Amino acid sequence: MVVTWSDQYTGSVIGLWNTVAVRDGYKEMTEASFSGIFTGNRYFDPENTFVLVEEGEVKGFACGCTGGDLPLGDHAGYITCIVLADEVCTDDNYKMMLEHLEGRFQALGKKQADVLFFNPMMLPWYIPDTPRHEHNNAPGVPTGSRLHSFLLGQGYVERAQECAMYLNLSSFSIPQEIRGKEEKANAEGYTVELFDQGKHHGVTDMLQGFDNPLWQKEIAQSTEDGVPVVVAAHHGKVVGFAGPVIRQESGRGYFAGIGVHPEHEGHGLGSILFFKLCEAFQQIGTDYMSLYTGSTNPAIRIYEKAGFKTVRTFSIMRREF
């Protein structure tokens, strides 16, 4: 029997997650983290959340996410997860849980189901072969997982692969090639350093050059509040950024992104910003960095040059109704 969410299932679903989902590399859950990711999330909807119950025991959990203010949210529903206990892990049961999610999306007028990084219900996972270093979000379905194979069989199209990349910062150093690029940029009137309100101006103008509301909000707020942000400036006017530079409790370096205003591309600023970002994290005692990028993104070469390695891949998937 599949039922919609009730808080009475919280403990059992956490137990299911910690038995099954952790084998796919996801971080175990506590009541606090479950609330933070699911039930306490402002996008949580009990009608988008389903529990498989057999003989009074929880055997499955599926959660979806909708919101008109989300990217694609006016016509797409997001699949967050489908988890089944080993004894009921069959294609028929996967299909039953998926059909409940898709049916709910369609009832809300959605035209497609997506699994992608815009989902605000972020699932943390452990980076393989590390001392429990973790990344704060899975940007899709783990490639090669049972769910990945199942969705492919149900007509979901793999639209892209995201490479999860990792760097232990203990041995990081900026190579001479990047130092040379920085010297050349300096000669052209550019500097790359931490933002200083007394030296730099034009953050708002720079951010308006990007079609990214997250950057416009977070970077503007960080520079205003004194949170470190690495910036590229041309004679003091900010033309690019990397950051913010925040060491998370886990020891991971958090940053929202890197951008160079289109009018100032072609000077090597993107590479310099990224390496300076890594250096800034190292200087505040950050243990490691992790990020994900599209497998066809040319920036992957910059990350690899800095020492990042691809540790997992995730699939971005979609099915149109």
Identify the notable features of this structure and list them briefly.
single chain; 321 residues; alpha+beta; eleven-stranded mixed beta sheet; four-stranded antiparallel beta sheet; 9 helices; 30% helix; 29% strand; elongated
Question: In a nutshell, what does this entry contain?
Answer:
Keywords: Acyltransferase, Transferase. It is built from 9 helices and 17 strands. It has 321 residues and is α+β, with helices and mostly antiparallel strands.
Structure notes:
With 321 residues, this protein is of the alpha+beta class. The chain has nine helices and 17 strands. It has helices at residues 10-20, 31-39, 91-107, 146-153, 176-187, 203-207, 213-225, 269-283, 300-305, and strands at 2-4, 49-54, 57-65, 76-84, 112-115, 125-126, 134-135, 141-142, 157-168, 190-194, 230-234, 237-243, 246-247, 252-254, 257-260, 288-294, 309-320. Strands 1, 2, 3, 4, 5, 8, 9, 13, 14, 16 and 17 form an eleven-stranded mixed β-sheet that branches. Strands 10-11-12-15 form a four-stranded antiparallel β-sheet. It has a two-stranded antiparallel ribbon with strand order 6-7. Helix 5 packs across helix 8 (269-283). The chain starts with a strand and ends with a strand. InterPro entries: Acyl_CoA_acyltransferase, GNAT_dom. This is Ribosomal protein S18 acetylase RimI-like enzyme. Keywords: Acyltransferase, Transferase. It holds the Pfam family Acetyltransf_1. Residues 190-321 form the N-acetyltransferase domain.
